[in-house]
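Quarterly update, task 2.4: NAP-bound model.
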Amino acid sequence: MSKILITGANGFIGSFLVEEALLQKHDVYAGVRKTSNLNHLNSSEIQVLPLDLSDPTSLRQKWTELKSVIARFDYVIHNAGVTQVVNPDDFDRVNNRYTQNLLQSLVDADFAPQKFILMSSLAAMGPGNEENLAPIEPIDTPKPITNYGRSKLKVEQYLSTQQYVPYLIFRPTAVYGPREKDFLSLFKAINRHIAPYISSPNQRLSFIYVKDLARLLITSTISSESNKAFFVSDGYTYTCKQLVDISKKTLDKWTMPIVIPKPIVKVLALLLEKIAQARHQTSVLNSDKYKELSSLNWSCNSKETEKAFNFAPKYNLENGIKESIQWYKKNNCL
Ligand SMILES: NC(=O)c1ccc[n+]([C@@H]2O[C@H](COP(=O)([O-])OP(=O)(O)OC[C@H]3O[C@@H](n4cnc5c(N)ncnc54)[C@H](OP(=O)(O)O)[C@@H]3O)[C@@H](O)[C@H]2O)c1
């Protein structure tokens, strides 16, 4: 049985990684914070490991203690990260510096894994060409447009220059599935007969269902691939209109298209961000989110990933949305 540490294990993607790792018979260590909500980590097979990623000394101590019990983790999937923050510097602090703390502490304690897998994001590449709408290619030069994307690119660069541990970087596009909140907001709007468009209805988008993403990452532990970055999508490009059409068909609702002009969304995003900052809270709509929502091209070419890991996504947007909506309804979210 391989020992696998999954950080951010209690979050949306993390909890699916844990489920899949148990399914694939790994010995699972769930890295969480002392304050984390553990509602979705209820299997008795999981070993919950409170970690303070801000404190390299405590991390080293933790690994030294664990060394008397296990030789090492075979694999570490570092999935913890922030996608919304109060202060823009928090992106770099958590997504970049905390990753460095984690890896360096494992190395310093002579407890480094066989493979370190980083959950990055397509945001590290930035959007694709808005003129020809060609998919973003793995060989393109990264041009992140958000603080979030820049923090993910910075940590990717750190990982690819360190010499200690073989690594894999995954750059998922938008991830959706049970418990995710952005899709839920869209479904709620459609339930009220509103089809909101911020960018053009022809905006190019790509998606990955959370269960497919989890299966790919857990399987990648035993692959011979290393020291490379991979896009993750379901292999299709969708338009924003297709996303709305599939959602309304599944919810069986008619909708009125509401096209919100970009300048209005931009001002609103800035305003909500400032209000949230004053209250020390995060806002779902903020200046980073505005830049993402208003970019016309988030399609990506993930053929290389499919080939490298023999990865065949089981879900396209249609059956992924169907399963998600069933879950939201069953859990009284819709
Ligand atoms: N959702 C997407 O569409 C998407 C797309 C591409 C990449 N990603 C990446 O996937 C990863 C997981 O995202 P998610 O969507 O599952 O978000 P999520 O539900 O918010 O989960 C984030 C996880 O990271 C942990 N975390 C946050 N701040 C931390 C800190 N300061 N110290 C330690 N742990 C911390 C959270 O712990 P608490 O619960 O204690 O806060 C939680 O377990 C992130 O790295 C994100 O960048 C997400």
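Highlight for this quarter: Residues 89-108 form the longest helix (20 residues).
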